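Hi there, hope your week has been kind to you so far. No rush at all, and the record is pasted right below.
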Amino acid sequence: MTFGEKFKKMRSDNGLTQDELANKLYVTRTAISKWERDKGFPNIDSLKLISKTFNVSLDELISDETIETNRLRENKIARKMYIVAMVFFGLTIILAILATIFDLLFLNIICSASALGYIVFALLSKPRYKRLESRKSIIPYVISRIVILVIIVIIGLVAWNI
């Protein structure tokens, strides 16, 4: 897939007209048209803006691999991370119940480590391109970080009480 084909697909996938995209990139509509027809190529500053606008790396933008292929690969890795996160979550629940019932110190320590494993893999379970998109929506991003902070504080309190 050529740069022009990728560029046109990204623009249409995001529901932008050539005029709208030209305004975002501080270029003319004619320049957008030339790039889409592979009659010209943007300069490095424009490439950086395109990369930022569509949440893709410069490598993805100018490489031969399609963005779809990269996103599919990222989604596959993210699914594996999600499964591992859920295993850690289930382990945390089971260990917390056992630690409460049997009041054993080592179960509390393992439970805390398991909760930490859950947090790490839960953060990794979102593909990179979605993490970048989520930073644009500041409220959900801030709320998710607050939730993570609360979980870490709870783990610290549990470990402190051990």
